[in-house]
User: What shape does this take?
Amino acid sequence: MEQNGYDAPRVRTIADLARLAGVSPGTVSRALAGKTLVNPETRDRIQALATEHSFRPNQMASRLRTQRTGVIGVVVPLGHERRQHLSDPFFMTMLGFLADRLTEDGYDLMLSRVIPDAADWLERIVDSGMMDGVLLIGQSDQIGTIERVARRYRPLVAWGSSNLPGQVHGAVGSDNVAGGRLAGERLVARGARRVAFLGDVRAPEIRDRFDGVAQAMAAAGLSQTPIQLDTPLASDLMERQIAAHLDQVAGQIDGIAAASDVIAMTTLRVLADRGIRVPDQMAVVGYDDLPIALSAVPRITTVRQDIRRGANEMVSALFRRIAGEDAPSVTMAPTLVERDSG
Amino acid sequence: MEQNGYDAPRVRTIADLARLAGVSPGTVSRALAGKTLVNPETRDRIQALATEHSFRPNQMASRLRTQRTGVIGVVVPLGHERRQHLSDPFFMTMLGFLADRLTEDGYDLMLSRVIPDAADWLERIVDSGMMDGVLLIGQSDQIGTIERVARRYRPLVAWGSSNLPGQVHGAVGSDNVAGGRLAGERLVARGARRVAFLGDVRAPEIRDRFDGVAQAMAAAGLSQTPIQLDTPLASDLMERQIAAHLDQVAGQIDGIAAASDVIAMTTLRVLADRGIRVPDQMAVVGYDDLPIALSAVPRITTVRQDIRRGANEMVSALFRRIAGEDAPSVTMAPTLVERDSG
DNA sequence: TTGAAAGCGCTAACAT
DNA sequence: ATGTTAGCGCTTTCAA
Assistant: This one.
C-alpha cells in the first residue's frame, strides 16, 4: 500500500480513521475496543482499516480520559546503601519475576531507581498520575515515608517485613529472623562453635537475619554472639573487604553466616585463595537461594526465599488494592536448602 | 496541616490551585514550570501553595498536551529462546546500567518483556504514543521486524550487531567474531587442541562467537572445528544438559569455550563434580565478564564486553536520534580478561 | 505580566 | 447501532 509515491496523510487519530470509514469517532473507538454495541460488520471493517493503516490509538489520550494507565511502578529505593547498584542479583531476580507476572496480566512496568534524598520522593511517584499502583522492592530505611504515603494512597505494596504495629501499607516478605535462625542452627549442627556474620546490619532485614543467627547460637548454649562484619555491595570492594575481615578473625571462627548468596559466593572465593577447606575447616551458609548458589563450588547451603512466590504475592496484593479491596500483609517462611558449603 | 478533621478538598488540578491562589490556570502552569514570564512573587507564592498542598501536576495530561512523554521503553525480545527468563544476568546487568543512566538524565524507563509471536509486537510498542524512544536489548531473530519499524520510527536503538548492509536502525554492540577469536586463541595458547563450544548458535551473536573460535583454531593450524553443544538458558536444565554433553565427549576435548559466563560457571561446577581439574586437564573460557566470573572458583578467564559503556552508548545514540540527529552504529572491541580457569 | 480559550486524542454519556 | 458532545488536566498561543 501507498506505493504510488503520493503518500496519503498518515492516519494518526481516531478522527482520521472515522473520516476514512465514513463513521463517527465514537463508533471507531467502540469498534477498536471490541465493544459489543457495534454492528459486527462495521466493527470488522473498521478494524481492517486500522490494520491496513497500521493505526494504533494514542495511549496517552486514552489513559488521560479513562484515568487508568495500565502501568505499575516498580521502585527500588536505595537508602543507606547508596553505592548499591540496581544490578544486585536479588533485585534483578525479583524484578524479573515481577515483569513476567505483570506482563502476563497486561500491565506495563515502569522502573524507578531512586535515591531517597528528597523527602517527597515517593509522593512524586504516586502523585504523578502515571501509574495505577506502585510496588516497592525493599523498604530500606524509608518505612516512615512509606507509611505516610500509604495512609492516603492505597495501591502500594512493598517487599519487606510487616512487623510494624498498625502498619497500613501492604507488605510481602519472608521472616528474616526465622531465616537467620535456620542458618545458625545449620552451622551449629555442622559443628561450628564460633561464627561470623557477614552483612551490613543497618538494613533492617539483614539485622533480623543477624538476630536469628544469634538466637540459634544462644539456644545451642553457645555464649558468644556472632561476630558481625560489614560487607559493601559493590562486587570489587566486597572481595577485598571480606578478605580483610577474614584475615583479621583467622583461626577464631569455624562458621560463617552470609547475609546473601552473593556474599557467600565471594566468601568461598576468598577462602579458596587461602586454602581453607569448605565445609571441613569452615562451614558457610548463604541466604536467598539465587541460581548462583547452585553453580558455586562447593554448592552453597542457603536459606531460601521463594522470590517467585514473593513477586506473585506482591502483584496479587496490589491488584486487590487497586480493586479497592483489602489485602493483608503476607510473611513467608524461609526454608533451608542443604547443600555442600555448610 | 489539615489537622482539623475537616479536610479541605484535595488540590488535584491546576485549576484547583489557581482558584486557591486567585489566579488563572495558565499562570499556575507557568509558575510551576518555572517559566520566566511570570512575576517572581506570584511564582513563589504559587510554588509555596503547591508544596503546602503537596500538589503535583498530572503527568498524563501534561504529556498528552506536550506530546513528550519523558519515557524510554526498554524492550527485551525473547525470540528463539522462549524459555529464557528476564532474570538472565546479562540482560539484568545491562538493564541496571540503562536504568542508572536514564534516571540520571531525567527519563523514566518502561520495561517490556515481549515474546514476539504477533508480527506487529514492535509496532504496538513504538506506536503506543507512550514513549519518546525505544531501546532493544538483543535483536534475537527479529532483525527483519526491527528494520521495518526503524525505517519510519527513528528513535530506536538496539543492542547487537550492525553488520547488515544499509541497516537503518541504530545498533550498539561488540564484535562477537573478534571475541570468539580471543577465546579460541587463549585456549590454543593454553595448550588446548580439541575444544568444545557450549552455546546455542541459533542466536546470531552466539553464532558469531562460535565462528570466531573456529577461526582461531584454524589459524593455529588445527584442522578440527570446535564441537558445538547446545545449552538451555534455564539454570536447572543447563547443568544437566552440560553434564550430559561433557560425559558424551569425555576424553575427546581439552578446552571449552563457553558462550557466556553463566555457562562457564555451570561448566566449572560440572567439571568439579567429575574431578576434572581446571585449567590443567581442561581449560575453560567464558564470555561477558559478569561479576560472577570474578567470584567463581577458579576465577573465570573471559572475554569482556563493556556492558556499562554499551549501555551509555545506546542511550547517547538514542538521545541523538530523539533530537533528530543521526547516530551511527557503534561496535566495541571485546577484550580478554586473563584469570585462572583457562 | 496575566487571563481566556483552544485544543492534545480519546471515551462515555446521552440522544437519536 | 451510531452520532453528538462534553470533558480528562494540562499547556500555549493570542489578546488584554
